Write the structure tokens for this entry.
Amino acid sequence: MGASHVRTLTTAVPGAVVTEVFDPDTERARSVVGPGGRAASSAEDLIASAEVDAVVIASPDLTHAALAVRCLEAGKPTLCEKPLALTAAEARTVVDAEVAGGRRLVQLGFMRRFDPGFVALRDAVVDGSVGRVRVVHAVHRNASSSTSTDDAGLVTGSMVHELDTIPWLLDDPLVAIRVESPVTTGFRDPQLATLWTRGGVMATVEVFVNAAYGYDVRCEVVGTAGSASLEPTTPIRLRSAGVDGVAVRDDFVAHFTEAYRHELGAWVRAAATGGVASSAPSAWDGYVANVAAAAGVASLGSGVREDVTPGERPALYA
């Protein structure tokens, strides 16, 4: 993910210059940053560097919260990949540090909010095209996953996208979640979640991180006056060996190329003024998604509906 962000910043985002990269593999860092940049000796060294005005955090999930707090202490605008943390308590430390500093500096990497398809789907909800929304159906499948490899990680690392996207689509916060799986032993993949919002909407979310056939994200919003669907897209239709069909990508980065470009572009423009865009997903949004994920993990264990209770939103995020 970090290498992909460097490529996008370097080739598709005007005004951005990648000056330093840190990776435990120094040679990899040097190859990613290119001839004009430097391989930093540590993440802390990069954050403190006078050559770095803003920071992208694309390291393993368990490091996100601590690094985000370091960036806040340094006063540097930060794009932190999702999830903000592994637990809601860790995520809250980032929120508290940002609130204590008195200004928003952290943007969360919920790139679907920048995807043209998801933006159009949200517009159809906001402008009333589908009437009053009643239900949402979402599908999130990967060919395979090297990161979401246990029951809890599937929720906190993969389903967390839907736990942010659905309340954003509806402008309606989650209040409860139930998570189940047809798998009873071993890694419980796939998982099926039922979500409830404050406004009375129900949503189903299927997450299957080892679906084998490819990367596939879909979403349908159903209302009292119609429905709006985010459908799979493909660049080609292929007829070969007696089969007429379309190719299915297995790479989420390729699937969301435009989303990442828009996300990084918005972040760079805001970082140039010393902050983040008010409409960008915030540390608070990351925390709320972590609270929902924690409730989902609890539900997977308890077998019952669990409440999502993030508490009162600080005024900084109003």
Summary: The domain at 119-248 is CATH 3.30.360.10 (Dihydrodipicolinate Reductase; domain 2).
